[in-house]
Design brief:
This protein has 13 helices and 15 strands. By secondary structure, the protein is of the alpha/beta class. α5 packs across α11. About 45% of the residues are buried. The structure holds zinc ion (2 copies). One zinc ion binds next to loops.
């Protein structure tokens, strides 16, 4: 079987033996797997958050069950979660499940950009393999994990006093945020990007769009919010400049969610007194739990998240190099790999 793996030169498409599921494991035939910014960062050695295994936004069909697996059958269309938390450690018991030491310990083998992969027992046992409701295609279903991450980020910054939002960076995650905010009934949603094509797409999802390279975004946002700035900003572009911009768009006492992964070693250049004087909270959000996976699968099924609009490019495993080029060019939104 073909699989994409991390190599010294970035990635390599290799021919591997199809894995056999060990006790408690599930063998999945990949049907679709979204390309995430963290995959590209792993290829470039810029992401240190987890092991260099590529492809985690996967959907596929169960082919074979290891001994002792209950509740799944060969032929089931599933979305497996690539990480899960133990539920018993200090972090799990004290409100930081995605910081559980076991969370990043386990992953698909050899990864999601592979014709077949196994899901480890640790994840299967904890219910991290979800049956996809009928009527949902593998391409739609592979948006479950990124949607789950966005959902958890919103939970971390949202309360009933958060009425207006700015989303900085309108790639696939930024657009996902716009859709979730609209579904939540947010009163004002402003999307910012320097890419005109993406601004146009964001406009279609009901956001007011601004290009920070064409005018003073902070002033424009103030005009839209009676001079205050937005209640909360979401940083959906992985650069320190995006975080700094998000801070300037946010009202006194507001929240900024750091969602996109900045490159390892990058520094925030921002007047720190501004954070304190204006009482700005920066809250990061990293990954999602099984709770959000379940909720996200429901939202994807209900078409709250528009898969057709989001997935703009598809490539086969052997075209992985093209997929990376398209991702970097930023001409589309979500890039998905199919076998
Ligand atoms: Zn991802
Ligand atoms: Zn734990």
């Amino acid at each position: 079987m073909r699989a994409v793996v991390v190599a010294d030169e970035g990635f390599r498409i290799v021919e591997l033996e199809r894995p056999r599921p060990g006790p408690g494991e599930v063998l999945v035939k990949m049907l679709a797997c979204g390309l995430c910014g963290t995959d590209v960062e792993k290829l470039e050695g810029r992401y240190r958050g987890s092991k260099p295994i590529l492809g985690h936004e996967a959907a596929g069909v169960v082919v074979e069950l290891g001994d002792g697996v209950a509740g799944l059958e060969p032929g089931d269309l599933v979305v497996p979660h690539h990480h899960t938390n133990c539920g018993e450690c200090y972090y799990c018991l004290n409100g930081s499940p995605t910081m559980c030491p076991s969370y990043r310990e386990y992953n698909f083998f050899p990864g999601g950009f592979s014709e077949y992969f196994t899901v480890p027992r640790f994840i299967v046992e904890r219910g991290g393999v979800y049956r996809v409701p009928s009527g949902l295609s593998p391409l739609q279903a592979c948006l479950t994990e990124p949607t789950a991450c966005a959902l958890r980020a919103l939970k971390r910054i949202h309360d009933d006093k958060t009425h207006s939002y700015a989303v900085v960076g309108l790639g696939p995650m930024g657009i996902t945020f716009l859709q979730l905010l609209k579904w939540r009934g947010s009163e004002l949603i402003i999307g910012l990007d320097v890419n005109e094509a993406r601004l146009e797409m964001a406009g279609r999802y009901g956001a007011i769009t601004l290009n920070p390279q064409r005018g003073n975004a902070a002033e424009q946002v103030k005009r839209l919010t009676e001079g205050r700035g937005v209640d909360a900003s979401i940083v959906a572009a992985g650069s320190p400049a995006a975080l700094s911009l998000a801070i300037t768009l946010t009202r006194r006492g507001g929240r900024v969610c750091l969602f996109a992964v900045p490159p390892h070693g990058s520094q925030l250049q921002h007047d720190l007194s501004d954070l304190l004087v204006r009482e700005i909270s920066i809250i990061s959000s990293n990954a999602a739990t099984e709770q959000e996976m379940r909720e996200a699968l429901e939202l994807v099924s209900e078409k709250v998240v528009d898969a057709e609009g989001l997935i703009t490019n598809r490539y086969r495993i052997e075209e992985f190099g093209e997929a990376i080029k398209t991702f970097k060019a930023g001409t589309g939104l979500k890039v998905a790999i199919t076998p």
